[in-house]
Design brief:
The protein is mainly α.
């Protein structure tokens, strides 16, 4: 039987991370305070402090959470090259837009400026580089850069070219 307190704690933590992403997406990382996250999540400010003692802890956890999902998706690509390119194109087209997509890139940009967040940015780039090395060994750097750029464009709602065609061209 699961521990009800642990389940409730995980739900509360998820609620706080989601609230943080919404705030970052709407107004940037500067909008993230313990009070603002509490208000966004509909909980007492002390709840934020309990799970995340500092705003930095909250931002690191939000970035790690976002990264876990995307790095995991890249690592789960099919072994078959063509199927992997198809799956990548679907991932890019399915990238979150609006607040969530902007929040993800806001956090990545923040990690470029803040040393304590940098390992998450490096983990994302490492995952992109690994996919690029597997799918486009002769053009891995260009493939990774293009893929990162396509994700960024998709998150801002910009119309994309045929992603599969672009990826296939770079992988050829």
């Amino acid at each position: 039987m699961p521990d009800g307190r642990r389940v409730k704690g995980e739900r509360r933590r998820r609620l706080l991370l989601d609230a943080t992403l919404r705030l970052v997406g709407r107004a940037g990382a500067v909008a993230v305070t313990q009070r603002a996250v509490a208000a966004e999540a509909g909980v007492a400010p002390s709840a934020v402090l309990y799970y995340f003692p500092t705003v930095d802890d909250l931002l690191v956890a939000a970035l790690r959470d976002v990264n876990d999902r995307w790095v995991g998706a890249l690592q789960d690509l099919p072994a078959d090259r063509s199927a992997a390119l198809d799956a990548l194109a679907v991932m890019v087209r399915g990238s979150p837009t609006g607040d969530e997509g902007l929040a993800e890139f806001e956090l990545y940009l923040l990690s470029a400026r803040r040393p304590e967040l940098r390992p998450e940015l490096d983990r994302w780039w490492g995952a992109l580089d690994a996919v690029a090395a597997r799918l486009a060994p002769d053009r891995a750097t260009a493939f990774a850069a293009a893929l990162d750029g396509l994700f960024l464009r998709a998150s801002t709602g910009v119309d994309l070219p045929d992603v599969r065609v672009v990826l296939a061209h770079l992988a050829s």
